[in-house]
Design goal:
6-stranded parallel sheet; Rossmann fold; 4-stranded parallel sheet
Length: 348
């Protein structure tokens, strides 16, 4: 049986078959399961499966737990993760390694980990965005060569590569304050993770240095992963406008997804950006340059994070370190069109 015949049997494209057999994102879990079942049942031994079956001496695994907080089944369609994965693949290729993908639903944790322990690779890069310290500690015991990406727990003797979230939000808060904003709103994620907690700490520290604080009514919580004009967010902003109290002249958003949604919602309420209100995000995803006006945001060096994750693994092959390494990658504020300078007394 060739790939074309397997694709016809499964009712999918050859591309979908290739993604499923090579463990790459891009097909749904049920489709992937069906393709793998049919490949096994009909004895398909295509190039992808043969390569995966070889002694995995030059293979790294990118491991994701889905339905764990921010990381959903379609995580690879979210701009931040999509860009990060691209850079990891490129760095692996430069280092002479192939990258395979493993996705485990959180509710199937025990079964999924047992399978991975039986299918050893050279090492594992774990997307730790939404995972608790206890979960990461357990994985580190069971999966040799583990590198954790996009979070950090200082007390764990595990290699981590994370964003300097505190620094990035501090840069954003300082920028808004220097632009004259003293009445500032904060759009937080409803789902709280290490990254967002650090961003909140950094932002609050920055504006406190300018003798400014945020009123409790100006702190709103919204879903973090939808790029759309969210009805609930629009309703919250409208309620604030209708309350009669002075509306913030600027909003800091804990990620670009929230910022883009906020720009759309504010526009639907008749507010002009940045003339009436400024908006600043965090992550610098590609979509931040597609919206109008382009989004002022905190740039995250996703390429450098990917390089560190792969390089920490390859370095450990030569010298097994007695202690682990934690890497914090700094950020850069990118000024675009969604923010403007105001007088401190400006009110809507």
């Amino acid at each position: 049986m060739n790939m074309e015949e397997l694709a016809r049997l499964a009712g999918v494209s050859k591309g979908a078959v290739s993604l499923a057999l090579n463990g790459k994102p891009g097909v749904g879990p049920e489709t992937r399961k069906r393709i793998l079942y049919l490949a096994e049942a009909y004895g398909y031994t295509g190039r992808g499966r043969a390569a995966a079956a070889e002694g995995n001496a030059r293979t790294l695994r990118f491991l994701v737990f889905t339905n764990a907080g921010l990381v959903h089944e379609e995580y690879y369609q979210q701009p931040f993760f999509r860009e990060l994965i691209h850079h990891i693949e490129e760095r692996c290729r430069m280092s002479g390694y192939s990258l395979i993908f493993s996705t485990i639903e959180e509710k199937h944790y025990a079964q999924g980990i047992q399978t991975l322990m039986e299918e050893r690779t050279s090492g594992v890069i774990l997307l730790g965005t939404s995972l608790a310290a206890s979960r990461i500690a357990d994985l580190a015991e069971k999966l040799p060569g583990l590198i954790v990406l996009d979070t950090c727990f200082d007390a764990l003797p595990v290699p981590f590569v994370e964003i300097n979230n505190y620094m990035g939000a501090y840069q954003a808060g300082s920028y808004l304050a220097r632009q004259g904003h003293r009445r500032i709103g904060y759009l937080a994620s409803e789902e709280r993770i290490h990254n967002f907690e650090e961003r909140q700490r950094g932002f609050m520290a920055a504006i406190a240095e300018f003798q400014t604080d945020i009123q409790p009514s100006h702190i709103l919580a919204v879903p973090p992963t939808m790029i759309s004009s969210q009805g609930p967010l629009r309703d919250k902003l409208k309620g604030l406008l209708d309350s009669g109290q002075p509306f913030p002249t600027a909003w800091f958003c804990e990620c670009d997804y929230i910022a883009i949604s906020a720009m759309k919602a504010l526009g639907e309420l008749g507010l002009s950006i940045p003339e009436d209100v400024s908006v600043i995000g965090f992550d610098n995803i590609n979509e931040s340059q597609i919206v109008t006006p382009e989004l002022t945001t905190v740039h995250v060096e996703k390429e450098r994070m990917a390089a560190w994750a792969v390089d920490l693994f390859t370095a450990s092959l030569h010298v097994r370190p007695a202690v682990s390494t934690k890497v914090k990658v700094d950020t850069l504020l990118i000024e675009r069109g969604s923010c403007r300078r105001v007088e401190a007394s400006t009110e809507l």
